[in-house]
Amino acid sequence: DIAANDVLGQIDFQAPDEGTGTDAILVAAGIAAVSEGDFSSSSNATKLSFKTGASETATEKMSLSSGGNLTVSGDVSVGDDLTVNGGVVDVKNTGAQSQVRFYCESSNAHYAAIQAPAHADFSGNVVLTLPATTGNLVTSAAAADEATALAIALG
Q1: What is the rounded CA–CA span in Å between residue 92 and residue 39?
Q2: Angle CA(8)–CA(11)–CA(17) in degrees, nearest 5?
Q3: Can you give the pLDDT at residue 154?
């Protein structure tokens, strides 16, 4: 019987005859089909697990679930335009305030950023709704003894 996390099959890449030994002979990369739950007459949910190693036995760095969800443990780089379908983009972090940066067109020399406030400053979720026309969005807030302004060009 196939149970959750059973490996249905896998391909491992390694150089067991490498003369330098130690890390060089460990599994360097692999792809595995892993059960996402107990198999039954109506379920065979399986994810693909993609493993790589640097100075270690290869471990999962990316997986594709039976539902089509891609999980990546490191950074994701996109060489051109990125299109996200679904209507919501979540930017989550690992202990710092989330930030989205928009870089200039000249060698990415400068950026303008949108950043979430610190946890202690939240009193609920905030939604910024952009206007339906081209123009500038201006807001101000007190910072130390002077007011600061953020102008975001929309168009």
Answers
A1: 33
A2: 140
A3: 41
User: pLDDT tens digits, residue range 44-82?
Assistant: 999 999 999 999 999 999 999 999 999 999 999 998 888
Task: Compute the distance between CA of residue 32 and CA of residue 50 in angstroms, rounded to an integer.
Answer: 7
Residue 43 gets which letter from DSSP? B
One-letter amino acid of 126? V
- Cα separation, 2 vs 86, whole angstroms: 33
Kindly state the DSSP code that residue 19 receives in the 8-state scheme.
T
Nearest one of 127, 129, 96, 97 to 115, comparing CA atoms = 97
The Cα–Cα gap between 132 and 116 comes to 23
**Can you tell me the mean pLDDT for 87-92?**
87
Give CA separation, 139 vs 29, 49, 78, in Å.
50, 46, 32
DSSP class of residue 120? G
Of 35, 61, 59, whose CA–CA distance to 47 is shortest?
A: 35
Two tokens at 80? 């051109």
Query: Using an 8 Å Cβ cutoff, are 102 and 111 in contact?
Result: yes
